Amino acid sequence: MWGAQFEIFEREVETLEEIQHESELLEAWRKRGPLGKLHNIATWILRCPQCRQRFATVVKQQLPDSPVLVPLVGNATRWHSNVDALERAFVLRVPLDGFVALAAKEERQGIGRLRKAKDNYSENDNEQDPQYVSTDELTLDHWEDLKVIRTILVPFKRVSLYLQGMSTNRNCANGYLSQILPAMDELLSHLEDAKTRYADPNIYSSHIATSINHAWKILCKYRLYIYLFILAIVLLLLTYVLLSDTTNLRTFPKSCMPW
Fold first, then answer.
1. DSSP classification of residue 138
2. Which of 135, 148, 199, 233 is a good FRET partner for 169, with 20 to 30 A between their CA atoms?
């Protein structure tokens, strides 16, 4: 989802959040494409009561029959938060575009007044101020990329919520290896289909293809870890059988059985 060197990006975000370097943090998210820009817009709207009130006014004007909602801020490490943020963003797409366009207009007017007030004002001064919300304005292509990202992430949310919950077929929790491995295979198949579907660079952003490949590699690594864990348990059982008599075998703790 976050493209190349995603682990470095996650560490960078955590560090910048700790030291509260807002400009650098916004720029770090912005470099991660449309989802990062959406994150910055939501952060900008939620940063103060005045911004939230202005956005609420735009929502009431453009979606008069809908409840007044605010965008959600995803983060770098949880799939759920970004899926939720995307779903909310598409509900608020018209107000978001309208709000950012209005803010961008005000920013441009402010730059124009500053130029008139300063004779030595450079043409490029403040045009790319990282704290300007206009820097994160979403185009139609950006929205198409966000739609693809949402399509890719939704199955991850569904599967992870299922594995966290209670089974409907028996009075116990989900999350056994007999459920996890098929779920991982399903998600790997989903990513393999996505790699083919979104491979054309003339239609889809190369960032999406890079992110899909990284997600596929990570999921394969996790599946390998699970198989190695199963192998370790089997070897433990065999060792116990070889070194113990039949009586001890019957008393082998069932808690060691992950299935």
1. -
2. 233
Mention every residue, 6+ apart, whose C-beta is less than 8 A from residue 181. 223, 226
- The identity of residue 90, as a single letter, is F
**b (16+ CB within 10 A) / e for 110-132:** ebeeeeeeeeeeeeeeeeeebeb
Per-domain residue ranges of the chain: 6-164
Cα angle: 175, vertex 178, 181; to 5 degrees: 85
**Alpha-carbon distances, residue 73 vs 31, 45, 57, 65, 158 (angstroms):** 17, 10, 20, 24, 20
Encoding tokens for residue 121?
Answer: 């004002």
Query: Bridge-partner residues for 173, per DSSP?
Result: 166
Residues 159 and 219: their CA atoms lie apart, in Å, by 13
Name the nearest CA neighbour of 185 among 161, 220, 155. 220
